[in-house]
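Reminder to self: keep the SMILES exactly as supplied, no canonicalising. Ligand is zinc ion.
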Amino acid sequence: MNAPFGAFEHPVVVAGGQVLTERGLERLDLVVHQGIVVELGASVDHPAGATVLDASGALVGPSFVDLHTHLREPGREQAETIETGTRAAALGGYGAVVAMPNTEPTMDTAAVVHMVLERGRNAPCEVAAAGAITVGRLGAQLAPMAELAALGVELFTDDGTGVQDGGVARRAMDYCRGLGVTYAEHCEDLAIAHGGCVHEGAWSALLGLPGQPAAAEEAMVARDLLLAATTGARLHLLHLSTAGSVELVRQAKARGVAVTAEVAPHHLSLTDASLKGYDPCFKVNPPLRPAEHLEALLDGLNDGTIDAVATDHAPHTPELKDLPFDQAPPGMLGLETAASITYEQLVAGRGATIERFFEVMATQPAKIARLDGTGARPFGHSVHGQRVAVGTTANLVVFDPEVRWTLEVDQLASKATNSPFSGARLVGKVRHCLLRGEPVVTDARSTR
Ligand SMILES: [Zn+2]
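Structure tokens returned for the bound complex:
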């Protein structure tokens, strides 16, 4: 077994945890050396000089993979940088994140994508890149997708907006199919959304805020599912937020359409009733919805209709988030709270298995981003999302599902503070995180 690129040299023992292996959860210790799990057993000999990490009372599995992170670099480094964003990611248990392309300049050229990948190379969490579908994300002219794919870009999206023109979407899907990459959509028909900044319903009426109906999302979900079937492209639907979207994906999967979907933790845990104080921290796009949507999303995530949890981590400076509700930009932090929220809603709240928790947080997102060892890896990305076994890359998270903590936003590693969970009592927290065998987080503290 070969050590992965950038592997940590020294031995590490992870002791006393419930480890997710091919057989399920087992009380095992493990030894990691040169970035690889080299021994797994009920008790193991500790190599000389090994760092020993206590995992008692905790779960040990593949570190998480985020399909949807806004690192803000280049262009909006006041809100987040690759350095601060990846530190936040590691603290949240992530071994890899996919950086979204709505940067300034847009990640629509090889030069910008190359720069992001290069700056992420030595981060405490691996950085993969999504490329823009169209030049400047303007929805008209296709970006040089083949050049970006040659850099290892596996996901293409104009996230922030959806591709409004169905003809452009169809052509982009044709290219994606040819290149063997995935077309990822932020589903929002802007004509139907009509400038609405919250969900159109009882709360928008009560608060006097312009709403957008669920149909604004669902119309584009339906269009893209039809186009995916027409073109044969792989389609990934970003941050689904409505019951109707879940149902459309369920039907399309039953017909054999090559579609995957993600949901954000805030859509699994918050409703539009949170808007009653006009706090812009609850403004997000797609917007928070009434409870029946939240229930449908949890059902869809539990039954496999929705494949993955993705944070849509969207840092903003306080200056922007302190604007009045209708003027503040949409977006919430997510990396440092996603595991807690997902565990609480899906496992504790919904009775999903711990295996399912790791599937939606690690295995499925690694597959969708092709960070599971199947994709091109010109930047040396290691293999993610695997259950623990001797010979696997030691990209591991130790997650304590019992610990109770209060989120203090000024304690976050992220540069920004726009979390909707500020001051909330949360259950479950990442204790340790290993990247290619290196303990980048120990006892919930960053070592970098
Ligand atoms: Zn989006």
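Points to follow up:
The chain has two domains: 12-60+388-446, 63-368.
The first strand starts at residue 12 and ends at 21.
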